[in-house]
Amino acid sequence: MDGAARVLVASNRGPVSYSVGEDGELRGKRGGGGVVSGLSAIEADSSSLWVCAALGEGDREAVRRGVGEPGSRMLAIAPDVFHAAYNDIANSVLWFVHHMLYQTPLEPVFDAGFRDRWAAYETYNAAFADALAEEAAPGAAVLVQDYHLVLVPALLRERRPDLKIGHFSHTPWAPPDYFRLLPDDTAVAVLEGILGADRAAFLTRRWADSFAACCADLLGAEVSADRRSVTHRGRTTRLGVHGLGADADFLRERAGRDDVVERMAALRAEAGPGRKLVVRVDRTELSKNIVRGLLAYRRLLVERPGWRSRVVHVAFAYPSRQDLAVYRDYTAEVSRVADEINAEFGTPDWQPVLLKVDDDFARSLAAYRLADVALVNPIRDGMNLVAKEMPVVSDNGVALVLSREAGAYAELGEDAIVVNPYDVEATAEALNEALTLPDAERADRTKRLAAAATALPPTRWFVDQLTALEEQA
Ligand code: G6P
Question: Cys-Cys link to 362, which of 97, 98, 259, 296 (CB 3.0-4.6 A)?
Answer without folding.
Answer: 259
